[in-house]
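User: Show me a protein chain along with its predicted structure.
Assistant: Here is one chain, sequence first, then structure tokens.
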Amino acid sequence: MKKAVYAFFAFWIVMVAFIFFMPRADAAQMFAKPVHCAPTLESLIDAWEEEGVYPLVMLGGVAWMSSGITTPALTFILVNEEGRNAVVEQTESGYCLLSSGSMVEYNSDEIKQMMKWE
């Protein structure tokens, strides 16, 4: 019985050590990517209005900087009826177009499947 208790504790010590010391990606490596940024959105707003793309959702949070620190950010999701979309992030330094596309999915189950959530 004593050996089983020691083995149990040894197992958990190894598991905790593995989780604590396993290689982790630096936050800046995980989230920093080249994106197009500008102090204003004037030129994009004109194009979006021509295509009927308008803001649908605003999300508040933080953005990862290339240095690995975070800064307050607002993220805007813009869409039109045909599925044209854009994701824009606003920080104190301006606006960045994170992505744009032509497909929108609102079904949570479909989105989870695409994300390999389950």
